[in-house]
Amino acid sequence: MAVETRGMLFEYGLSLPPLALVFKFNPQDISRSRTVTVKTGDAPGSRGGYDFVSPLETSRVSQGVEMQAESFSIDIMLDATDELNDGDGIAKTFGVQPQIDTLRSMAEPKTQGPSGVKVLSSLGMPGARAFERQEVASVLIFAWGMQLLPVFLTGVTQKEVLHLPNLMPYRADMGLTFQVIESANPFFMADKVRQTMGTALNLVSGMGA
Description:
It contains four helices and 13 strands. The protein has helices at residues 81-85, 89-94, 97-107, 186-208, and strands spanning 6-11, 15-16, 20-24, 31-33, 36-39, 64-67, 71-79, 110-112, 118-120, 135-136, 140-144, 147-163, 169-180. The strands form three sheets. A seven-stranded antiparallel sheet has the order 3-1-11-12-13-7-4. A hairpin with a 5-residue loop joins strand 8 (110-112) and strand 9 (118-120).
């Protein structure tokens, strides 16, 4: 039986309300997707790439490459059973609704408030018309195991499974879809270093096999 671990998802920045969620997370699978488009040109006599003979000539085989941002999806279960058994007052009244609300807020657009604080766009900004507000997405950090990735939350699905007598859910299955923010930010650059180290370890273990 798998050992229970935890994942964390939090907004990197100042926001009202503050957005952070710790959840039980030991997935059987994570679906990750990377799309690469290779430009090969249309030279006569070559299909799918230009001619090459030696390794020194491989740089000309393609005429360019476009890489889309990586996306991935996970399924998590929010469950307040332990909290209910411990007599937690918030869980007894609201179940896992606060966690669901946090995830939904992470996906909603934000507007810039006073002193750089971001607020939910749906709350509105005093004195600002809707078409004048500049809406932005939350920059989130998704942490699990040795992974620490900057992401946008691009999709949330929820299935409420069990409810309290007041019809608040105390167990829900959540499907989350993310887009990795691939830029010169400290989290993505650290992950690329980790990826490079993993590639080197693979070479060492392969040579020793």
